[in-house]
Task: structure prediction
Amino acid sequence: MTLETLREISRRPAEIQPELRNAEARYEGTRIPLTGLATVDFTRESIYAYIVNSGEWNTSMFMSMEPGSMQQIGGFFRDVAPSFLLGPGAGGIIVPVGGGWEARDAKWIGEGSSADPPGDRFRFNIGSVVIDGPAAGKVAASCRLLYGGGEWDLDTTFAGNTLLVRELTDGALRREDETLSAAIDRTLNDLEQHALWVLLSFITGNRLNSLATEFYCDSGALIRTVHRRGANVSVGRGEIFHRHHGPLTSRGLQLLGAGILRLMVAPQPFPIENVIHHLLDANTGNVDTDAQHLVLAIHAAFEAWNRTYGRNEWIEDRPWKGMARRIRHSISEEAYEAIPADVRCEIVRNIVSDVNHSNRTTSGWRQRSMFDALQIDVSDGDNRRALKLRDELIHNGYFLTRWRQLTQVQAQERMDDIQRLRRLAILIILRLTAFEGRFVNPVRLQGENVTPVPLPPDIAPPVEV
Result:
């Protein structure tokens, strides 16, 4: 496919909510197929379908049951136990008689009656809808992924291929109504699509909502569109880059995309998407929960780092068990007798547990180890104080001194410390992906330069020749 064709595809208007109404169709997934008039309703958040059956399908299904057996209507389609996680066999497909589209992973969610057209109305939640294009059946040479919740443009490469990111809306009133297009000159596997979604969400500053994927032949004709709705757009937006203070370049986007994909496919996959999603969820404006998400972003990063590149114990487990036993036995009976009898049993259990676990590295040590390896300086008083918020939030679950109890000076300090945590979470992501360039420092709201540092071989970028 030529670059000109890919550019034209990237800017095409997106059909997010197509019209599929009153088509003769059948639901396949029950012993007796359900036939009738099918309608598929699309919103930017979900896809539903219903089939109106004017025959006696319910009666036919009851008559097909084993003699003496009992069944609810919903049980014809899937298990109807509450809080039951639905498996692959819980859904079917809806196929129109005339072809042209197919609703997949259709899960029954209810039944009612319809007056126009008359009959029994069966409602389904739809996993995906595949709609044929003019070039149906041809080999896909490229694809375009559509997302809700973003507006920005940039040309780069992803997974070794040209990637063109375009905004298809201009100044939408709500973030949920923004539409972002990402066209690439080949098709992507599931992991690559996931990595691209994480990348574009990170750049946008909020989690994007997956809407659809379009597939094109080499000439640029549409083969098919797969509509699938993902997680809704997250609350709030925290932009990491700014066109004046910290502009994102094509090279920077390329480095981030390659780094995220590299971390996800490493022999011991690094949970970079968890770190990024905690960062994106820390934009609600609620200082307590935003701080908790930022603490968890940092926590997830250093625990994952330690699991692969650090150490969990100071001494190997087998020799330590004997050492711990000798340490416990060295405590005299008289020492235990000094403990009040009503709590003695519980305190002794705590002592045993503490001795057994004293061989494990502390979370503070593991955190410092990652920061040292990534060459992120946290030695100053402000960063040390901000990182201590982790202890308060992890152990207490919330700030003991509530926001309304703070003085103006204390409130400013808390806000600054939360932004320091945000900066550290961003720096961790940028260093792990070998990013080079500028971003917006959330503490000072000015540009800050980032340079790559040496990384372990399994997540390091390839050496450029």
Summary: The mean pLDDT is 92. The longest helix spans residues 408-432. The CA atoms of residues 387 and 421 lie 7 Å apart. The chain is about 35% helix and 25% strand.
